[in-house]
């Protein structure tokens, strides 16, 4: 019973595999890849993202040149929220 309460009262887990925090990108596209509880709702910069049955997700974003902070948010059915921020830097490739 205590374990069920802990699950209900805690925000969902949220693992972000890519991009890494502080990553320098040579392209204006990056893919956000991660995993959470399959019953959670996920948003990337406010955009709802569809989850796979195992709670994994993958979403491509387009970014302008410069520094960006990407906010990934998972919300449990009980309304508990866990957020992860990833700072990335988009640099122009030589010759572009």
CATH class descriptor name: Mainly Beta
> Which regions contain 5 or more consecutive residues with pLDDT less than 50?
none
- CATH architecture term: Sandwich
Largest sheet entry = 5 strands, mixed
Task: Output the structural class.
Answer: mainly beta
Helical percentage = under 10%
| Strand segment count | 8
**Bulk shape:** elongated
Gap between N and C termini, in Å? Answer: 59 Å
Number of helices: 1
Give the amount of beta strand, in percent. over 45%
What number of structural domains do the residues give? 1
Fourth CATH level, the homologous superfamily = Immunoglobulins
Structure description:
With 96 residues, the chain is mainly beta. It contains one helix and eight strands. The chain has one helix at residues 2-9; strands at residues 14-18, 23-25, 29-36, 41-44, 47-49, 56-62, 66-75, 81-90. A five-stranded mixed beta sheet has the order 2-8-7-4-5, with no helix packed on it. The longest helix is centred in the first third of the chain and has 8 residues, at 2-9. The termini are far apart. The mean pLDDT is 91.
